[in-house]
Fold:
Amino acid sequence: MTDFQPKSDFLATLIERGYVHQASDLAGLDALAAKGGVVAYVGYDCTAPSLHIGSLISIMMLAWLQRTGNKPIALMGGGTTRVGDPSGKDETRRILSIEDIEANKNGIQRVFSNLINFGNGTIDARMVDNAEWLAPLNYIEFLRDVGKHFSVNRMLAMDSAKLRLEREQELSFIEFNYMLLQSYDFVELARRYGCNLQMGGSDQWGNIVSGIDLGRRMGTHQLYALTCPLLTTASGAKMGKTASGAVWLNEDLLSAYEYWQYWRNTEDADVSRFLKLFTFLPMGEIVRLSALGGAEINEAKKVLATEATALVRGRAAAEAAADTARRAFELGETASSLPTVEIAAGEVDAGLGLLNAFLKAGLVSGTGEARRQIEGGGLKVNDNAVSDPRATLSRSDFNSDGAVKLSLGKKKHVLLKLV
RNA sequence: GGGAGAAUGUCCCGAGCGGCAAAGGGGGCGGACUGUAAAUCCGCUGGCUAAGCCUUCGUAGGUUCGAGUCCUACUUCUCCCA
Structure:
């Protein structure tokens, strides 16, 4: 892959920035991309009300595709989610109701318009839902038209099924069918929209290639596959997980400030890779930032955080998050833009215990945890460590704006504000 | 259909002669060191109105002063035979 010299901007960019893990026919795809002839899709399951950063790479691939003169399609798995993809999963996922799937779909769709332009022009992106053609399918017809092209022997040999079988874990028939549906999606998109490339995470390789195969058997034009690596951090953790859960792309599930913080806390060894994958910064700038050593690399992390946040949440939100962080961490100020929780003045006057104050602020999950954190020196009120679990909050702890700063550890701060 | 085994702390894996809030590990959180990094070291990791009280070992009963541990039934999963 490294010795391939792409002629198209699309592949040149993707390869240079580290998006490419595996591809079915690089030369053929390159030729197509060089003349702006690629129509590529990525499918997204509707299993949660928002995508998280695990899906961000593939969205970036769609964005680059458009920026290099080709047409992206974002496919919502409104149909396939009713079945459940077994790829890379140990256990059967619970089957979601159709209402949940629809609600999730509505949440997921929102992110895309930040990164991709939708419309009716040749290069404008399309958003489609595979429920459109999967839901009305007739079982017998589907078996005759599509099912006959699949070999169970071959399907059993593919990783998604093989792993389950080897580990003697349940693989239900409904999941086993997922591959057929995803393959059929590819064919359907080829027929409807001239789609000729499917991209996705490396765990999707089997499903994608089997779609190419189905396309050939069902007489579509030549189809291509391109996968990106599944991301882990330099220290091996899966990306997108934090203490409080996934790193969501939607604002209502994770504030811009917290999203910015996620990127700010990137490990040194990941900075260069993430700048390439999760920003549109030109390579020259990335090379310069990546060369920063020691404490200076923090500058690069701030750029990464702001750029990555701007992509998904908008430039203004990203700048605001950066500013909040700068005040809180570098100037030691109590920035009024920190996450804020309101509290009734009467509650404070009645004598509010610190334990419960931290609980209200959402910094601890219970007073038990608050007690433990006090023992470990992890709780601070207005930057002063708390030592007495029986202490209470009083009016004098609040500043002139009627706010106290409660902190858990060095990074998590919440303002309690009187109302 | 017959036989054998398993289910443990609401993140996961996993020990547990009738005295158990229950070993150990991973993960996570906090502290120290740093640079809001990694690595390393230390502490914590059921809930609460907290020297006490309450609720936990698949479900429901039973034996016992006392049950995660013994008995019975049920549920689910795995394996072997058919």
